[in-house]
Amino acid sequence: MQRAMLRINDIPTQVITEGRWVEEGLAEYGKKDIVLVITGNPGVAEFYEGFIKTIKSRLPTEVPVWVVGNAGHVQPPNNLAITMPSNSTWNEHYSLMAQLEHKKDFIKKYIPEDARLHLIGHSAGSWMILNMLKDDIIAKKITKCYLLFPTIEHLATTTNGWIFTKIISQIAFFVIFVAWTFQFLPHFLQIFFISIITLLRGIPSKYNNAVLQLLNPDVLERIIKMAKEEMEIIKERDDDIISKYADKLWFYYGNCDGWTPVKYYEDLKSKHPDLNAELCKHGYHHSFVLQYDKEMGKLVADVINDNIL
Protein backbone atom coordinates (compact mmCIF):
# COMPACT_ATOMS: atom_id res chain seq x y z
CA MET A 1 0.00 0.00 0.00
CA GLN A 2 1.33 3.42 -0.98
CA ARG A 3 0.29 6.82 0.37
CA ALA A 4 1.11 10.38 -0.63
CA MET A 5 -0.23 13.91 -0.77
CA LEU A 6 -0.64 14.90 -4.42
CA ARG A 7 -1.47 18.41 -5.54
CA ILE A 8 -4.79 18.33 -7.40
CA ASN A 9 -6.53 21.57 -8.38
CA ASP A 10 -3.90 23.31 -6.21
CA ILE A 11 -4.95 21.26 -3.15
CA PRO A 12 -2.61 18.76 -1.44
CA THR A 13 -4.79 15.63 -1.53
CA GLN A 14 -4.43 12.27 0.20
CA VAL A 15 -4.15 9.42 -2.32
CA ILE A 16 -3.72 5.76 -1.33
CA THR A 17 -3.10 2.88 -3.71
CA GLU A 18 -2.95 -0.90 -3.74
CA GLY A 19 -0.86 -2.04 -6.68
CA ARG A 20 0.83 0.33 -9.10
CA TRP A 21 1.22 3.96 -8.01
CA VAL A 22 -0.82 6.59 -9.87
CA GLU A 23 2.22 8.00 -11.66
CA GLU A 24 3.50 4.61 -12.88
CA GLY A 25 0.90 4.13 -15.60
CA LEU A 26 -0.44 0.75 -16.67
CA ALA A 27 1.42 -2.54 -16.53
CA GLU A 28 3.17 -3.33 -19.83
CA TYR A 29 1.32 -6.63 -20.17
CA GLY A 30 -2.04 -7.89 -19.00
CA LYS A 31 -5.25 -6.11 -18.08
CA LYS A 32 -5.68 -2.39 -18.71
CA ASP A 33 -8.22 -1.88 -15.93
CA ILE A 34 -7.89 0.64 -13.08
CA VAL A 35 -10.23 0.83 -10.09
CA LEU A 36 -10.71 4.27 -8.52
CA VAL A 37 -12.70 4.94 -5.34
CA ILE A 38 -14.44 8.30 -4.92
CA THR A 39 -15.10 8.76 -1.21
CA GLY A 40 -18.13 10.06 0.59
CA ASN A 41 -18.08 12.87 3.14
CA PRO A 42 -15.87 12.84 5.21
CA GLY A 43 -13.45 12.14 2.41
CA VAL A 44 -10.51 10.74 4.37
CA ALA A 45 -8.91 8.12 2.13
CA GLU A 46 -7.44 6.26 5.11
CA PHE A 47 -10.92 5.03 6.08
CA TYR A 48 -11.00 3.03 2.81
CA GLU A 49 -7.70 1.17 3.24
CA GLY A 50 -9.23 -2.15 4.31
CA PHE A 51 -11.84 -1.88 1.56
CA ILE A 52 -9.34 -1.36 -1.28
CA LYS A 53 -6.99 -3.99 0.16
CA THR A 54 -9.77 -6.59 0.00
CA ILE A 55 -10.77 -5.56 -3.53
CA LYS A 56 -7.17 -5.71 -4.75
CA SER A 57 -6.71 -9.22 -3.31
CA ARG A 58 -9.52 -10.55 -5.52
CA LEU A 59 -8.64 -8.85 -8.82
CA PRO A 60 -6.02 -9.76 -11.46
CA THR A 61 -2.58 -8.91 -10.05
CA GLU A 62 -1.87 -6.15 -12.58
CA VAL A 63 -5.08 -4.21 -11.79
CA PRO A 64 -4.41 -1.37 -9.30
CA VAL A 65 -6.97 0.00 -6.86
CA TRP A 66 -6.76 3.68 -5.92
CA VAL A 67 -8.66 5.94 -3.57
CA VAL A 68 -8.56 9.73 -3.77
CA GLY A 69 -9.71 11.74 -0.77
CA ASN A 70 -11.71 14.94 -0.79
CA ALA A 71 -9.92 18.25 -1.14
CA GLY A 72 -9.09 19.68 2.27
CA HIS A 73 -10.31 16.70 4.30
CA VAL A 74 -6.77 15.81 5.38
CA GLN A 75 -4.18 18.37 6.46
CA PRO A 76 -0.62 17.73 5.21
CA PRO A 77 1.80 16.47 7.91
CA ASN A 78 3.58 19.23 9.81
CA ASN A 79 6.98 17.98 8.63
CA LEU A 80 6.07 18.75 5.01
CA ALA A 81 6.43 22.31 3.75
CA ILE A 82 2.99 22.26 2.16
CA THR A 83 0.40 24.98 2.55
CA MET A 84 -3.34 24.63 2.08
CA PRO A 85 -5.52 27.36 0.54
CA SER A 86 -7.53 29.03 3.29
CA ASN A 87 -11.20 28.33 3.82
CA SER A 88 -11.92 31.79 2.39
CA THR A 89 -11.33 30.22 -1.05
CA TRP A 90 -14.27 27.90 -0.45
CA ASN A 91 -15.97 28.07 -3.84
CA GLU A 92 -12.75 27.46 -5.78
CA HIS A 93 -11.33 24.66 -3.64
CA TYR A 94 -13.60 23.04 -1.06
CA SER A 95 -17.26 23.36 -2.07
CA LEU A 96 -19.29 20.40 -3.32
CA MET A 97 -18.93 21.58 -6.92
CA ALA A 98 -15.20 22.16 -6.40
CA GLN A 99 -14.90 18.59 -5.10
CA LEU A 100 -16.53 17.37 -8.31
CA GLU A 101 -14.02 19.31 -10.45
CA HIS A 102 -11.23 18.06 -8.18
CA LYS A 103 -12.08 14.42 -9.01
CA LYS A 104 -12.41 15.19 -12.71
CA ASP A 105 -8.98 16.82 -12.65
CA PHE A 106 -7.49 13.73 -11.00
CA ILE A 107 -8.98 11.41 -13.62
CA LYS A 108 -7.85 13.55 -16.55
CA LYS A 109 -4.33 13.82 -15.12
CA TYR A 110 -3.65 10.29 -13.88
CA ILE A 111 -5.86 7.84 -15.79
CA PRO A 112 -4.03 6.73 -18.98
CA GLU A 113 -5.85 7.15 -22.28
CA ASP A 114 -6.01 3.41 -22.95
CA ALA A 115 -7.16 2.44 -19.44
CA ARG A 116 -10.50 0.81 -18.67
CA LEU A 117 -11.72 2.83 -15.68
CA HIS A 118 -13.90 1.31 -12.96
CA LEU A 119 -15.29 3.98 -10.63
CA ILE A 120 -16.54 3.14 -7.15
CA GLY A 121 -18.59 5.88 -5.53
CA HIS A 122 -19.57 5.84 -1.87
CA SER A 123 -22.41 8.06 -0.64
CA ALA A 124 -21.83 11.57 -2.08
CA GLY A 125 -19.12 10.05 -4.25
CA SER A 126 -21.96 8.39 -6.18
CA TRP A 127 -23.51 11.80 -6.87
CA MET A 128 -20.13 13.02 -8.12
CA ILE A 129 -19.78 10.04 -10.47
CA LEU A 130 -23.21 10.60 -12.02
CA ASN A 131 -22.19 14.20 -12.66
CA MET A 132 -18.82 13.14 -14.09
CA LEU A 133 -20.70 11.17 -16.74
CA LYS A 134 -21.85 14.52 -18.13
CA ASP A 135 -18.24 15.12 -19.17
CA ASP A 136 -17.82 13.27 -22.48
CA ILE A 137 -14.06 12.92 -22.07
CA ILE A 138 -14.46 11.15 -18.73
CA ALA A 139 -17.53 9.15 -19.77
CA LYS A 140 -15.52 7.57 -22.60
CA LYS A 141 -12.88 6.39 -20.13
CA ILE A 142 -15.40 4.68 -17.83
CA THR A 143 -16.11 0.97 -18.17
CA LYS A 144 -18.39 0.65 -15.13
CA CYS A 145 -19.56 2.63 -12.11
CA TYR A 146 -20.34 0.95 -8.79
CA LEU A 147 -22.46 3.26 -6.64
CA LEU A 148 -22.58 2.19 -3.00
CA PHE A 149 -25.19 3.56 -0.58
CA PRO A 150 -25.71 6.36 -3.12
CA THR A 151 -26.86 9.75 -1.84
CA ILE A 152 -28.18 10.99 -5.18
CA GLU A 153 -31.56 12.47 -4.25
CA HIS A 154 -33.49 14.40 -1.60
CA LEU A 155 -30.79 14.16 1.03
CA ALA A 156 -32.20 16.74 3.44
CA THR A 157 -35.52 14.92 3.85
CA THR A 158 -33.97 11.62 4.97
CA THR A 159 -33.79 10.69 8.66
CA ASN A 160 -30.10 11.51 8.92
CA GLY A 161 -30.54 14.58 6.74
CA TRP A 162 -33.16 15.91 9.17
CA ILE A 163 -30.87 15.23 12.15
CA PHE A 164 -27.97 16.99 10.45
CA THR A 165 -30.03 19.99 9.34
CA LYS A 166 -32.01 20.51 12.54
CA ILE A 167 -29.40 19.57 15.14
CA ILE A 168 -25.81 19.08 14.03
CA SER A 169 -25.59 22.09 11.73
CA GLN A 170 -27.09 24.25 14.50
CA ILE A 171 -24.28 23.36 16.91
CA ALA A 172 -21.52 23.28 14.28
CA PHE A 173 -19.70 26.27 15.79
CA PHE A 174 -19.54 24.56 19.19
CA VAL A 175 -18.34 21.28 17.64
CA ILE A 176 -15.56 23.09 15.76
CA PHE A 177 -14.60 24.98 18.94
CA VAL A 178 -14.26 21.70 20.84
CA ALA A 179 -12.09 20.33 18.02
CA TRP A 180 -9.94 23.47 18.24
CA THR A 181 -9.37 23.03 22.00
CA PHE A 182 -8.62 19.34 21.42
CA GLN A 183 -5.54 20.35 19.39
CA PHE A 184 -3.87 21.71 22.54
CA LEU A 185 -3.83 18.31 24.26
CA PRO A 186 -0.63 16.23 24.12
CA HIS A 187 -0.69 13.70 21.30
CA PHE A 188 -0.89 10.71 23.65
CA LEU A 189 -3.99 12.19 25.31
CA GLN A 190 -5.60 12.83 21.93
CA ILE A 191 -5.09 9.18 20.98
CA PHE A 192 -6.33 8.06 24.41
CA PHE A 193 -9.62 9.97 24.09
CA ILE A 194 -10.08 8.88 20.48
CA SER A 195 -9.51 5.25 21.52
CA ILE A 196 -12.30 5.55 24.08
CA ILE A 197 -14.69 7.16 21.58
CA THR A 198 -14.01 4.58 18.86
CA LEU A 199 -14.34 1.73 21.36
CA LEU A 200 -17.73 3.01 22.50
CA ARG A 201 -18.87 3.45 18.88
CA GLY A 202 -17.65 0.01 17.84
CA ILE A 203 -15.07 1.48 15.44
CA PRO A 204 -11.87 -0.60 15.03
CA SER A 205 -8.76 0.99 16.54
CA LYS A 206 -7.02 0.88 13.13
CA TYR A 207 -9.04 3.99 12.26
CA ASN A 208 -7.83 6.07 15.23
CA ASN A 209 -5.43 8.08 13.07
CA ALA A 210 -8.13 8.77 10.47
CA VAL A 211 -10.46 9.98 13.24
CA LEU A 212 -7.66 12.21 14.54
CA GLN A 213 -7.37 13.79 11.10
CA LEU A 214 -11.09 14.57 11.15
CA LEU A 215 -10.72 16.48 14.41
CA ASN A 216 -8.53 19.16 12.89
CA PRO A 217 -10.80 22.23 13.22
CA ASP A 218 -10.13 23.48 9.67
CA VAL A 219 -10.92 20.04 8.28
CA LEU A 220 -14.03 19.68 10.41
CA GLU A 221 -15.29 23.07 9.24
CA ARG A 222 -14.89 21.99 5.60
CA ILE A 223 -16.64 18.67 6.21
CA ILE A 224 -19.64 20.28 7.91
CA LYS A 225 -19.92 23.08 5.36
CA MET A 226 -19.75 20.58 2.49
CA ALA A 227 -22.49 18.52 4.16
CA LYS A 228 -24.67 21.63 4.35
CA GLU A 229 -24.21 22.12 0.61
CA GLU A 230 -25.14 18.49 -0.01
CA MET A 231 -28.45 19.10 1.77
CA GLU A 232 -29.12 22.11 -0.46
CA ILE A 233 -27.90 20.74 -3.80
CA ILE A 234 -28.70 17.02 -3.83
CA LYS A 235 -32.44 17.02 -4.47
CA GLU A 236 -33.86 15.62 -7.69
CA ARG A 237 -32.43 12.33 -8.94
CA ASP A 238 -30.88 12.75 -12.39
CA ASP A 239 -32.96 10.21 -14.30
CA ASP A 240 -31.71 11.47 -17.66
CA ILE A 241 -28.08 10.64 -16.96
CA ILE A 242 -29.08 7.32 -15.35
CA SER A 243 -31.06 6.36 -18.47
CA LYS A 244 -28.29 7.46 -20.82
CA TYR A 245 -25.59 5.44 -19.07
CA ALA A 246 -27.66 2.62 -17.55
CA ASP A 247 -25.30 0.01 -19.01
CA LYS A 248 -22.38 1.57 -17.10
CA LEU A 249 -24.14 1.69 -13.71
CA TRP A 250 -24.48 -0.72 -10.79
CA PHE A 251 -26.23 0.47 -7.62
CA TYR A 252 -26.08 -1.01 -4.13
CA TYR A 253 -28.56 0.34 -1.56
CA GLY A 254 -28.63 -0.35 2.17
CA ASN A 255 -31.68 -1.86 3.84
CA CYS A 256 -31.14 0.11 7.07
CA ASP A 257 -29.66 3.37 5.80
CA GLY A 258 -30.64 6.70 7.32
CA TRP A 259 -29.23 8.54 4.29
CA THR A 260 -30.71 6.40 1.50
CA PRO A 261 -34.01 4.83 2.62
CA VAL A 262 -35.34 1.69 0.93
CA LYS A 263 -38.02 3.85 -0.71
CA TYR A 264 -35.31 5.51 -2.80
CA TYR A 265 -34.22 2.10 -4.07
CA GLU A 266 -37.82 1.16 -4.85
CA ASP A 267 -38.45 4.46 -6.66
CA LEU A 268 -35.28 4.00 -8.71
CA LYS A 269 -36.28 0.48 -9.77
CA SER A 270 -39.80 1.64 -10.56
CA LYS A 271 -38.49 4.37 -12.86
CA HIS A 272 -35.69 2.20 -14.32
CA PRO A 273 -36.89 -1.43 -14.06
CA ASP A 274 -34.00 -2.82 -16.11
CA LEU A 275 -31.33 -0.97 -14.13
CA ASN A 276 -28.74 -3.12 -12.36
CA ALA A 277 -29.51 -2.20 -8.74
CA GLU A 278 -29.44 -4.32 -5.60
CA LEU A 279 -30.80 -3.94 -2.08
CA CYS A 280 -28.49 -5.13 0.69
CA LYS A 281 -29.66 -8.26 2.50
CA HIS A 282 -26.95 -8.25 5.16
CA GLY A 283 -27.64 -5.13 7.21
CA TYR A 284 -24.44 -3.36 6.16
CA HIS A 285 -24.39 0.23 7.38
CA HIS A 286 -23.98 3.37 5.28
CA SER A 287 -20.50 3.88 6.76
CA PHE A 288 -19.58 0.31 5.77
CA VAL A 289 -15.84 1.04 5.74
CA LEU A 290 -15.83 1.11 9.55
CA GLN A 291 -17.17 -2.39 10.16
CA TYR A 292 -17.88 -4.17 6.87
CA ASP A 293 -14.92 -3.18 4.72
CA LYS A 294 -13.90 -6.77 3.99
CA GLU A 295 -17.45 -7.95 3.27
CA MET A 296 -18.18 -5.04 0.93
CA GLY A 297 -14.74 -5.37 -0.64
CA LYS A 298 -15.43 -9.00 -1.57
CA LEU A 299 -18.90 -8.16 -2.89
CA VAL A 300 -17.74 -5.26 -5.06
CA ALA A 301 -14.63 -7.09 -6.29
CA ASP A 302 -16.76 -9.96 -7.57
CA VAL A 303 -18.90 -7.53 -9.57
CA ILE A 304 -15.80 -5.78 -10.93
CA ASN A 305 -14.35 -9.12 -12.03
CA ASP A 306 -17.50 -9.70 -14.07
CA ASN A 307 -16.66 -6.50 -15.99
CA ILE A 308 -12.95 -7.09 -16.55
CA LEU A 309 -12.18 -8.44 -20.02
TrEMBL record:
Pfam families: LIDHydrolase (PF10230). Gene3D superfamilies: alpha/beta hydrolase. One of its GO terms (biological process) is lipid storage. The chain crosses the membrane at residues 163-182. It is found in: Lipid droplet. It is an enzyme of class 3 (hydrolase). This is Lipid droplet-associated hydrolase. It comes from Bombus terrestris.
